[in-house]
Amino acid sequence: MFSITVRDHVMVAHSFQGEVFGPAQRLHGATFVVDATFRRTDLDADGIVVDIGLATEQLKAVLGDLNYRNLDEVFPGVNTTTEFLAKEIADRLVAAVHSGALGDGARGLAGLTVTLHESHVAWAAYEREL
User: Fold this and answer.
1) What is the pLDDT of residues 21-50, one digit of tens each?
2) Which CATH number is correct for 2-129, 3.30.479.10, 3.40.50.1000, 3.30.1330.60, 3.40.50.720?
3) pTM of this prediction exceeds 0.90
4) 37 to each of 10, 25, 55, how far by Cα in Å?
């Protein structure tokens, strides 16, 4: 399996509901380093997994919709955990693939993994097939 990864970051505010979250129940900020890893079994006709420039642009666009936002307003009533955000970002990137925003070659992608790094010691990921 071949893969490429592009990276960006997003800064958000949010709060959580539930005792399990302790002090994070209060509104707080978070900065996530976001990796999007695109996978395919065989390289496309150009010998690549996906156009790295288009992948970078699309990750930036997806994160731009969330950047500097209070996620409590974007996703009312949802605990916007790192895991939830990884899936949300992955789903938005898959929609970009299906719309052609990552080029025709991207239609041959087999899968995508989005990893959100909360810090240098903790991260969460969501992996899905295309």
Assistant:
1) 999 999 999 999 999 999 999 999 999 999
2) 3.30.479.10
3) yes
4) 17, 31, 9
